[in-house]
Amino acid sequence: MKFLSISATKSFVAFCSAFLVSAGLFAQGGAVSLESLLREMANRDALASWPEVPYTTGQASSYDRNSKTNNPEDGADAQSRWGKGWFANKDFSHYIRTEDNNGRREDVMLDVKGPGAIVRFWNTLGGNAYKYGGIIRVYIDGNPTPAIEMHNKNLLGSDGLVGEPFSYMAPKEAENPVWRGRNLFLPIPYQKSCKVTFDGHGKYAHQKGWSAMYYALNYRTYPAGTRVESFTMEALNQARELVKETGERLTKYGAPRGEKLAASVKDHTLAPGKYYRARLKGSSAVKELAVKIKADNMEQALRSTVLEISFDGEKTVWCPLGQFFGTGYQIKPHSTFNVAMDSAGLMTARWTMPFRKKADLRVRNYGDQPVILEKVEVRTDDWEWNENSMYFCASWKELRSIKTDYRRDGNYVEVKGKGVLVGDNLTLFNTHPDWWGEGDEKIYVDGETFPSHFGTGTEDYYGYAWCRPQFFSYPFHSQPTGAGNKAVGITSNNRYRGLDAVPFTSSLKFDMEIWHPFEKPMTYSPACFWYARPGAERNVQPDPEGVKLPVTMKKEDVINSL
């Protein structure tokens, strides 16, 4: 495997910024708290530095426990609806254990020790389980009385604890209310331990028919000795105003980020093979990048026009414009905390991208048609670089016209070095009028042989459920188009990470199972986003020839390429 290297920077300038992760901690006298985590959630600068208070991110989910050993030969059993071994697909109603608590049957979904915080909770139910639901209980620091005790339909996707944008259903509308993913992003910190249970089985155990509880919880673990103010309903009530303010920051962009307009161009034509270049100098950080293009074939232009960025001479970003801004290769408006496209086709990214001395940003036309840059604006602010500062990185690849009669792990990216995974997106073309995405995410951190993040399905990973094609857009998830969900067509899914970012100190490997139940070919294009310290490497190379290929617009484009 060949890796693209980021050469090491040899010296650093000391710095202290009150607007990074530590700001929220120091505001609470050095403790992690609900309030500090809310501030961190809405602080884009926080992800651009290695956290001063380090943490690891784990996941507890209902993945099929028959998946024990990575055996690629298990993928040959493609005719089985439920898969086999490493690709087993009964990803529901699996728990750590079942307890009898005061006469109640409680299935344990999460049980972790040490200081930490739940930072994401996704759930959906099927069959009798949906009809009856059940009670979620969150026990903190060994207290036998739960800090949270609420019906799952009120806790996730409704406003029983907190409303949008922290708790929501994706999509909002569906033919059947069952067919939606339920999400909760309100952080739930704890000092000593946290246990989450589901009490519902007894309500539907006597009913005939299928029942399924799917879930995934992401949680942080801090080093022993880290002081954490554990969650209480009283603390939540005291933080209601901050919750409101944070929600507004997550959903309302307001004025452009960055005090300095460092580079701009309007109505500039890029001939095939040419590029626009912006050179930035000084210790600074890109805070906002806005791009709008025009071409006869806009779909092809969004794929063949590529954003290339080097920081301090190190190439870290190579990604087609469409996927960098989360819209695949179509004009599909959506708005997340980090990227957006409006109805006029203006694309905006608000990632914080720091550099020590210089940055080189290019928008290059790899296609065979002229592309007009109707607008490019690069806005920056000062940044004091230090030993915790990280470069923003982005990669893209396409698995073109792949056969799916053999289930396998498709690699999104592999990184060697120190950094933080902060997002990804997937654009694909499905050639069959049914579902394409039974595959689970598998994320390996720092040399793990078994993934610490093992999911329950591709759409579950992206925040929705049950193959739904409807549009949705929230701060950390969006589906600009789901036309290829249970239909022939294009789908574009986005997931961006805030508190659920995944730090790694030596390596990260991100796979997604390619698991099409109907064994039909498709074109599959993931992009990944992460921050990395100088010296990191990645396995995904720039692919100029790949972005020149005609984009897939109809079934025959895939079939004829086999």
TrEMBL record:
Residues 56-81 are annotated as: Disordered. This is DUF2961 domain-containing protein. Residues 56-72 have a biased composition (Polar residues). The keyword Transport does not apply. The lineage of its organism: Bacteria, Pseudomonadati, Bacteroidota, Cytophagia, Cytophagales. Keywords: Signal. Pfam families: DUF2961 (PF11175). InterPro entries: DUF2961. Residues 1-27 form the signal peptide. The keyword Nucleus does not apply. Coiled coil: none annotated. It comes from the Bacteria.
